[in-house]
Amino acid sequence: MTSVFRFAPSPTGLLHLGHAASAAAVWRGAEAAGGRVLLRIEDIDPVRSKPEFAAAIEEDLAWLGFRWDGPVVRQSERLDLYAAAIAKLDAQGLLYPCRLSRTDIAAAAAPDAARDPDGAVRLPLAGARPSDPDGPPARRLRMAKALATLGGDPLTWREEGVGAIEARPELWGDVVLARKETPTSYHLAVVVDDAAQGVTHVVRGRDLYDATAVHRLLQRLLDLPEPAYRHHPLLLAPDGEKLAKRRGSPSLRSLRAEGWSREDVLRAVGAA
Ligand code: GLU
User: Fold this and answer.
1) What is the pLDDT of residues 120-177, one digit of tens each?
2) Where is the Glutamyl/glutaminyl-tRNA synthetase class Ib catalytic domain (predicted)?
3) For a FRET experiment, which of 77, 89, 183, 189 has its CA 20 to 30 Å from that of 45?
4) What are the residue ranges spanned by the domains of the chain?
5) What is the pTM for the complete model shown?
6) DSSP 181-231
7) What is the 73 CA–ligand 1 centroid distance (Å)?
8) CATH code for the domain defined by 1-77+236-272
9) Is the CB of residue 5 less than 8 Å from the CB of residue 38?
10) Closest among 211, 252, 246, 204 to 229, alpha carbons compared
């Protein structure tokens, strides 16, 4: 069976060296496995995603010499697939509507409230009240019920080069699976698409390591196959922070305009 890898950027800005490092990890992994790479544009955030950033991603990858297989897949064109997965989870009684905004949650949370691995206050939270009880709801997973459906089976994932990792989705609490403005969240879309596209190897940054526990749980609940995972270290700015446009990390195109070659970029990210 041919291995299938994917590169799945969000078009919310121009690619920078961190993306080049990630793309290199994906394409090098596929080369070593004799596999293919798919390009998936994760443009479900209607506010932050921009078509011009998606176009720039394709151009920058082509300039770097990274070629993908088949047509580019755009999550914004696949909302029906995510809605079907939501309906499947709903039919199992695993979802509930939630109108709590971040502010509502912050207002009800004690300073020492349990937090998920991304730092958000973990739900359910006793005493939280929506400030807009008639607004459109998000849909949250009933985490305790979802875990109970596993019937005590251990939930793990295979981290390449490491082995089996215990997945602890409970650390995320009642995660949002559909937002009020889109019928999906990142967690749901990524799991549905990796399965629909036959992805066998997920290579992505270490910042998504903890999210893998939620992804494995959703794969079990939706009866989807389990890919192998590899979370590569993040390329950090000199101050130790994650590279980001908002912190002034230069885009690949500005480096290119300054005269950087493709080889210079690959050397800078340790992939030459
Ligand atoms: N779209 C995500 C990002 O740009 C990556 C998703 C993934 O690789 O699972 O951070």
Assistant:
1) 999 999 989 999 999 999 999 999 999 999 998 999 999 999 999 999 999 999 999 9
2) 5-269
3) 89
4) 1-77+236-272, 80-197+207-226
5) 0.95
6) SSS--HHHHHHHHHHHTT--EEEEEGGGTTHHHHHHHHHHHTT----EEEE
7) 14
8) 3.40.50.620
9) yes
10) 204
Number of Cβ within 10 Å of residue 57's Cβ equals 23
Q: Could you tell me which of 197, 199, 179 has the C-alpha nearest to residue 188?
A: 179
Tokens of 89: 């989870």
CA distance 15 to 251: 6
Stretch 217-222: mean pLDDT: 98
Task: Write the pLDDT tens digit of every residue in 118-127.
Answer: 999 999 999 8
Asked if residue 10 has its Cβ within 6 Å of ligand 1, the reply is yes
Residues near 71 by beta carbon (within 8 Å), at least 6 away in sequence = none
pLDDT in tens, 75-132: 999 999 999 999 999 999 999 999 999 999 999 999 999 999 999 999 999 989 999 9
How many angstroms separate the alpha carbon of residue 134 from the centre of ligand 1?
Answer: 32
Ligand 1 close to Cβ of residue 208 (< 6 A): yes
**If you measure from the C-alpha of residue 10 to the centroid of ligand 1, how many angstroms do you get, rounded to a whole number?**
6
Separation in Å, CA 21 to CA 49, 120, 133, 155, 231: 21, 28, 44, 30, 12
227 lines ligand 1 (CB under 6 A): no
- Which fold is adopted by the domain 80-197+207-226? Rossmann fold (3.40.50)
Closest CA to 170 of 137, 214, 128: 214
Asked whether 226 and 157 are in contact (CB, 8 A), the reply is yes
Question: By CB neighbour count within 10 A (0-12 exposed, 13-18 middle, 19+ buried), where does 44 fall?
Answer: buried
HSE (side-chain half, CA atoms, 13 Å) at 70: 12
80-197+207-226 shares the fold of 1-77+236-272? yes
